[in-house]
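Trying the structure run again after the queue cleared.
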Amino acid sequence: MTFFFYTGITVRDLDRSIKFYTEIMGMKLVDRVKNPYTNGEFAELVSREGELPNLELNWYADKKDYKNGDELDHLGFLVEDAYKEIERFKKLGIEIAKEPYESKNHVIFFIKDPDGIWLEIISKKHKGAIPKNVDPYQR
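Done. Tokens:
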């Protein structure tokens, strides 16, 4: 079972985008993280603290060529066990866009939907990795 978690969009200037979404759209910055796996940085924003879904702003140091329409980066789905899910997707013939890797708190991999949109599949490695008030798997 998957749970829709957030939308990730690619931005050209992370500071400018954070300012827009917080000051103009009224969202709250929850976290900002340098990501060594993508040579970039991302910021998580919410409309109301403790509620989903999140908006994730992704900036990539190596991305220089932007085209209109490139902004939708990926959709994020939370699962209980990423390794079980990847096996299920493989059996169903779903294209694996990026094999699993582990961060400090999560196991992450990517698949593609029928139109080629990347879907991030993420599971937590320990109980505190996702706040209890937004974690559908904490009962």
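The chain has a mean pLDDT of 84. Worth checking whether this holds up in the mutant runs.
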